[in-house]
Amino acid sequence: VDENVDGGKHEETTLGGITLLPGSGEVMTTLFDPVNSYRSGGVGWFNNTSGRRDRAYEVFEQDAGGPTATFGKAAGLGDLELLCDRAPFELGNRVWLDVNGDGIQEPNEPPIPGVLVQLYRPGVGHDGEPGTADDDLPIASATTDDSGDYYFYEDDFDDPLESDELGIINYNNGELLPNTAYEIRIDRGADFAPGGPL
């Protein structure tokens, strides 16, 4: 980028390694001459809306050949990869009226709000220990929202049955664990009674 318009820098310095963090408003790419050194390589961040370079970082400096030569302007950097926190575990989906009984929600099949959905960890319960009193008790519960949606996900809440909004339950006391058997049940009798949502 020729910031002082003196013809001393290249106008197109990107090299092809590119990544985007959704929601950041920026795209990140490898480039040569990222700051002020010629024959150097680094990374630049560009505004997604304007295309303007917001900032840059030089990974390797200018070289003049010799025993410590770098790749200079010849793409000495490869692809870029983001190192992000893992996505939280989440269980859930939707309760709907399956009019034709095929197990697939079609556009004409409406959601069912107000249904109690319970999460179980069969044989071990909330404490994770088999053979204790909680083995057949739900470890979390949620009520479907107006769209029939419900989700159980790990978060930083101490109360495993505390919900922050309809259809969403934050479950962390014992955490949702990978490679663990869970069951989602709709087993409240009142949901199936006359006048109930089901």
Topology, element by element:
Blueprint: E1 14-20, E2 26-32, E3 41-47, E4 53-60, E5 90-94, E6 116-120, E7 140-143, E8 149-153, E9 168-170, E10 183-185, H1 189-192
Parallel strand pairs: 8-9
Antiparallel strand pairs: 1-2, 2-3, 3-4, 5-8, 6-7, 6-10
Describe the structure.
This protein has 198 residues and is mostly beta strands. The protein folds into 2 domains: 1-84, no CATH class; 85-188, Immunoglobulin-like (Sandwich). The chain is 2% helix and 27% strand. The chain is built from 1 helix and 10 strands; from the N terminus they run ββββββββββα. The protein has one helix spanning 189-192; strands spanning 14-20, 26-32, 41-47, 53-60, 90-94, 116-120, 140-143, 149-153, 168-170, 183-185. It has a 4-stranded antiparallel sheet, with no helix packed on it. Strands 5-8-9 form a 3-stranded mixed sheet, with no helix packed on it. Strand 2 (26-32) and strand 3 form a beta hairpin.
Quaternary structure of the protein:
single chain
Secondary-structure-derived class: mainly beta
CATH class of the largest domain: Mainly Beta
Percent range for helical residues? Answer: under 10%
